[in-house]
Amino acid sequence: MLRLLPSLSLLLLPLISLPTQADDDPAVARGHEIVTEADNRDKGWINTESTMKMELSNAHGDVSVRQLRTKALEVEGDGDKGLTIFDQPLDVKGTAFLTFSHALEPDDQWIYLPALKRVKRISSRNKSGPFMGSEFAYEDMASFEVEKYDYRYLRDEMLDGIDCFVVESYPRDKNSGYTRLVTWFDKAEYRAQKINYFDRKNAALKTLRFSEFKHYLDQYWRPHRMHMVNHQTGKSTVLTFDEIRFQTGLSDRDFNKNSLKRAK
Amino acid sequence: MSTLPLSPKTLTRLLATSALIATSAPVMAQDMTQLSGSFELELRSFFENPLDPRQHNNTLSIAATPEYYHSWNDEQDALTITPFIRIDQHDAERTHADLREFNWLHVADNWQLRSGIGKVFWGSTESQHLVDIINQTDSLEGVDGEDKLGQPMLHYSYLLDAGDISFFWLPYFRERTFAGVEGRPRTALPVDTDRAQYESGAEQWHQDFALRWSYSFDAVDLGLAHFHGTNREPTLLPNTGNPATATSLIPRYEIIDQTSLDLTSALGDWLWKLEAIHNSGLDAGDYNAAVGGFEYTYVGWLDSDADLGLLMEYHYDSRDQRSTRPFQDDIFAGLRITLNDFQSTEFLAGLIYDRDNHARMGFVEASRRLGSQFKLSAEARLFDNLSSTDPLYGLRDDSFVQLTLEYFFSEQL
């Protein structure tokens, strides 16, 4: 779950080659092509470390802030590994999550409770639940794997003056909280610019906007601001990254239960 | 995700320089010094008058748990110092201080060593912690056995291809804490901790050892461990040798060997859990005990953001009614509600029922963050239908509610 965002941009794009439905449907092939390109452009980042702030707001204007750090490791041939540590609110400071994402199997997830020094495995079906009270669901934060979705190209469209492809994605996991996602990719860099989420009843649920993109290592685009609005509750969450560092020397050793217990 | 043309390691090396240039990110983590922790104010209120007139119906107390943390050498070395102090209105024993942690951690490629006073948790189940044996229980802090005293240790962990293996050298034993004469809840007779007895002539300096292998594979977490040393749980003996005339209880600590297994398996919305021990060396004879069950989580309960968790566990102890633990043929059922709201509101309620003597022990815990730096918790513990042979018989009139207000702080130095 929480391995958050270093690759959220890519995560949110569904895609890969699934030879299921209508392989001969040109919209399916085109959708696949677009997302594959977006995914390929985001390979080889190896590992990242970032700090971020989540600001939760409700319809009454109440605001609550979470501060967290994440470490992520790209894994060849499987989902990525992630470690997320809470700095705020202070009552959960030091609480940490370890996630091993998998393409088709359920993710492995553990939580570390610093007061008890206890590592607990968490039920892996918890995808659709809110992450720390925010409008981001666990599945929104998870490592993107192309095999997780089916997709279909819808149309070309201008979005705030940016020329975009619009692609629809259908989660293959029946535990997903969504029936479909509609994603706008800019044609210039294949970055996700906007996602509309539709709930299990296919009603409009949330909209996520990405902005303040920065370019890293001459290859990787990362949005430093993500704004999720829930249309059904009026609640919203703004996620901002203070800092993203690439290739900091993290390895597999930094993603196990011992490193989870060392989290500070 | 994708197949890389080079191994990640090679690439990391190749790109290390460019990463520095591209992001000017420091590859070495900086030294960090931090002071954090909490203060708390607690009120306990008992429903019934005490068995012993020296005890009280209401008790106020305050506690502090500051933590100093300093890391250096690219986070490969860290010093943690966590003192704890509580001041209780009535109970001179509960007014106590402890060093929960005072240790140096060194992390290398495939191993790590923690030296000093520390805390370690082993186990998987929720309603009893059978396997967890490294740290002594600070029973003054709570009746659930989850509060622990700092344990002097050398704790060496080595990463294997399959999990990791840990060696523990525990050079000094910590005696269990017990409520004082005015303290509550407590056993019917107070425990005289000043007269503790030991099987070993070395007493608290008996050298204890433990070994543990833990491994996660597929959706399973497995732990196998062996402990040799001073039993963390004392036998309580009448001070006069005769229960009829005794005025206090004396704790006696024996040398034991305990082999344990703990297991968690995730299957969809279900978590299956098991803890089992074989214990030998007690004068009263060897025994086996186990606790196992499940936790089922229903996400998005009633179309809301809330999660509903259902828990059920069964307790077994081969000593039956001779068991020193209250749970030998008991069933635990629990309900956890997590609202997933801004203030992280949570409820947990549970009931443990003894199938033999029909004793019932219930609890309710609720907590909610207030603003960004406070947390309010409420807890109720209910003891009902305890028979005179139950180890908890002394608590039969000690049902209580407790309110706790905590303040949290954190400063980077």
UniProtKB/TrEMBL annotation, chain A:
It comes from the Bacteria. Keywords: Lipoprotein, Signal. Residues 1-22 form the signal peptide. Residues 80-262 form the Uncharacterized protein TP-0789 domain. Pfam families: LolA_like. This is Outer membrane lipoprotein-sorting protein. It comes from Motiliproteus coralliicola. The lineage of its organism: Bacteria, Pseudomonadati, Pseudomonadota, Gammaproteobacteria, Oceanospirillales.
